[in-house]
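1st attempt posting a full record on here, be nice pls
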Amino acid sequence: MKLDKIDKKILIILQRNAKITNSKLSKEIGLSPAPTLERVRKLESNGIISGYHAKLDKSKLGLGVSTFVMVSLKVHNKKNLLSFLDKIKDLENIVECHHITGSADFILKVVAENIESYQDLMLEKINEIDVADSFQSLVILSTFKDNKVIPI
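the predicted structure (as tokens):
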């Protein structure tokens, strides 16, 4: 799907405020409500808009510790890769998993209530993954930029 200026403007606005009404969105992009809604639905049906999400405050939910965990597999092959992914898929504290290049095979973003619950997760779940060789934890001390808006 080829995006024009109006489509791009819609995407930028929706990334910043997914709860905007169609009426307000139409005013901001300079179209009437019907064609605005039609454009949004087209962006959704083409998979460019894949969902709408609420941004939550982790600290207010009692999730005071966030870390990145770099994981290296014992042997980097398809079988081990799929086994690792299968073992982490249901661990809800792992909120992101990226297959990467460099000194590790994966980088995970993990959230936990506190250091003790993070340690329990690492010792009882993540460290027990048999295809994993090593782990390196990087505790996030502060976050200065957490921009979920993709440049278009």
